């Protein structure tokens, strides 16, 4: 046995055969901080590097794969290899430097072959397509030309034989003297003449056809040339983008500041997202269709299309003002805390009622759910809808304006999306908003949300209280769920960022189907992808039917369960599900261009504060301080906000002096308190009348923002924690910071 074979045998690596592109062997792969490097079986084949826990797993479970055609190969020290492609990085370690060098050589060779193969396939497919199109056009012309030559030959023969026939008939006519015979011959002669004329007409028509085909051929040639140039331009653009992507990725990897933050202790690599140690394992089975109701588009007639309003797509850019909470608190030393005005610099130009309405951004999920015949499939879509409401919070750290007591907000999207929505601030202590939506596409949703918050030093926990109800008209399915906890990090120092964590239980109270959703909190030491959401949809008997997975800021997928079993691995009990391939339920819309300068608003959020005609005087769009802020007039907005707050304080003082007691409870205009038969809770439900009042344009019962009669705030004690709360996305419990 040669020295090379001995070395391979000792390391467990399989030597590649002559001309083979396959290389196998054991390497140590970094998993996480608790387990460090773990021994894994790696297989390099056809430009792909895959790994398994054991050699036996090659038959059924691949733990991960990297395409070497787009991968970067780095060597850190004597035994380490780092492979990165896209967002995935493998930190590998060989047992010896010699073994590491063998792997690096095999990887570099496989990468070169993969890149060459990719270019050859792309180039050959492009040339084959262009050549086939050109050959097809040329072949058509040749065929037409040959047919025309055949027709010309036939025409010559017809003319030749026709002339001979006419000569023969003329001679026959001269020889015969009978009148009857002469008439018959004359008729035949006329027919022969007509035949000749017809053949000439036919050949002329064919010549015209050829001319037309030639002109079309020139047009096809020009179009084909244009497509070739466009393809070449696109290929060049893609190549440039790929180079820029590689440069940015390399710069990101080599950034020392990033390495200092993400490096593991003692020089170990940062941990990566990996699926190999999950509590629940999923295996794909045969393909099958997951029917979630008709996915066809909602057709709109031409007349309706003409009346649809074009919504705005941008707002004024956010001014670049630098301001921090501590500078405000320092300037307020010695002042009464309840009278500290919080500037709009910490806000975004939307009210909390408008943020609540943003839950409807993906209302088409409910439209699809309304068409489902299966309650379990409907549950999958309702679950995706509940997750989608958090997608706008990933980059939205500014707080919305606190609604004034009695403030309302309507969103009429009857023509575009088939629904009408109305909100009202029904309570100020605790801050509470009621929301009601009715859709012509078969569903009604209502909710009352009260915000509770706890400041915990470095972060703030925001806990929305209250249930969300959804009823589908045709089936009567009634779904109820609650929101998870939002956490705002880096309250005091650093860049604010938001995370969602906790569990959501969605229950269909008609069928008793349920869905358990888990929002995993972010952890630097976790193997999970950030913002991960998982769930299981079960029937009334507790039998699991669908697995849900995704992230709350990107997408959700569902996979139908074929079989489940209980097992153990490394001392842990786990449920193993065999599923069909996952199907996409929901995908987040991309943000508009220049969104970072427009408060990271989504396309829907950009339209929420757009001026509307005929709305109630209490509508959030008419709030002056919020409108001034949207117009980038922040100094005027702060002045208007402070004036509004002082006006409301005066109203309360006068009422207390007049009544000699605490201010009476506010009675909402459009919502009434009732006990819910399902949850047993007393909450506000829509009592009707808003849209009828809008149709009549009778808002006589409503105050205005300029009217001090709009009792906005019950001013309670405002302490330091309330000031901190006011920095982030949550209404505080004091009207002075709205």
Automatic annotation (TrEMBL):
Residues 258-278, 635-655 are annotated as: Disordered. Transmembrane segments: none annotated. It is a peripheral membrane protein. Residues 20-112 form the PH domain. GO terms for biological process: lipid transport. GO terms for molecular function: cholesterol binding. InterPro entries: OSBP_sf, Oxysterol-bd, Oxysterol-bd_CS, PH-like_dom_sf, PH_domain. Keywords: Coiled coil, Lipid transport, Lipid-binding, Membrane, Phosphoprotein, Transport. One of its GO terms (cellular component) is perinuclear endoplasmic reticulum. It comes from the Eukaryota. Residues 224-251 form a coiled coil. It is found in: Membrane. Belongs to the OSBP family. This is Oxysterol-binding protein.
